[in-house]
Amino acid sequence: MRADFETIVVSRPEDHLLLVTLNRPAAANALNTRMGLELMEVFEQLALDLEGLRVAIITGSGTKAFCAGGDLKERNGMSDESWQAQHAIFERMARAIMGCPIPLLAAVNGAAYGGGCEIAAAADFVYAATDARFALTEVTLGIMPGTGGTQNLARAVGERRAKEIILSGLPFTAAQAEAWGLVNRVVEPPELLEATLAIARRIAGNGPIAVRQAKQAIHRGLQMSVWDGLAFEIEAYNRLVPTEDRREGVLAFNERRKPVFRGR
Fold first, then answer.
1. What is the model's pTM?
2. Which residues lie closer than 8 Å to 130 by C-beta, 6 or more apart?
3. Phi, psi angles (nearest 5°) of residue 257
4. Residue of 94, 90, 63 lying closest to 75 (CA atoms)
5. Which residues are catalytic?
6. Cβ distance 136 to 145 under 8 Å?
7. Spatial distance between the Cα atoms of 11 and 7, rounded to a whole number of angstroms
8. Quick one: pLDDT at residue 75?
9. Whole-angstrom distance, CA of residue 186 vs CA of residue 20
10. Residue 156: pLDDT over 90
């Protein structure tokens, strides 16, 4: 994966971990066309080649904003056709993020408004700084969430709460986001990235094929009836039985040592 991006910073803080940092601090890490294209590229590339990666983290640069949403300065004066063409990029970006084959963790370090809140909601789970703020403000601009917000937020916090948040456009705190189910854990700002890295390391130390299969079983199973979900689960489970990692996990347990998983 290339590293010469304009609006994001992509790094590997550890061997199996990918860190994607939204990097437009002067614009509160707002989502412009270039950032949409670059995020789309990163997450579509992961679908083609994991390069040994097991967990991805997305965060924002600086301390004030995770992502302030769509860049309205760039959008000012856009024709309808240009607006829709840009949004098609954002739609594809959102689907690539949601389709990330490895666990994706969001470390929300500040304001996550509009598209920023939608990116967080598209992650597998979210850690947030105590001073983080969330909002889906699109209706205050005469539009609506269009990069997964109506779907992912409702699945995280429930239909009635999602309607309140989206139809009012009101901001809410990290503590409220945790109480409502959007955020898994709230930590002090200086501890946010290390707390997220710690759980990422824990996940990366588990069987990588097992983690990916479990993620898919949870995510796709929730879109099915419970009986179809059970059938999907056992199909995912059975793919793990012939793997080297499954044999290594059992052997390591009996030898009282830490397993060495190789993703095979």
1. 0.93
2. 174, 175, 186, 187, 188, 189
3. -140, 170
4. 90
5. 118, 138
6. yes
7. 13
8. 87
9. 20
10. yes
